[in-house]
Amino acid sequence: NADESFAKKLSNLAEIYVNDAYGTTHREHASTATMAKFFDLKSPGILLENEIASLRKLMNNPSGPVTAIIGGAKVSSKISVIANMLDVVDNLIIGGGMAYTFIKNNGGAIGDSIFEKDKLNDCSKIISLAEQKNVNVFLPEDVVASNEFSNEGLKKAVNIYNIPKGWQGLDIGPLTISKFEKIVTESKTILWNGPMGVFEFDKFADGTNAIATTLADLSAFSEVCTIIGGGDSVAAVEKAGLAEKMSHISTGGGASLELLEGKTLPGVAALNDA
Question: What whole-number distance in Å separates Cα of residue 167 and Cα of residue 204?
Answer without folding.
Answer: 14
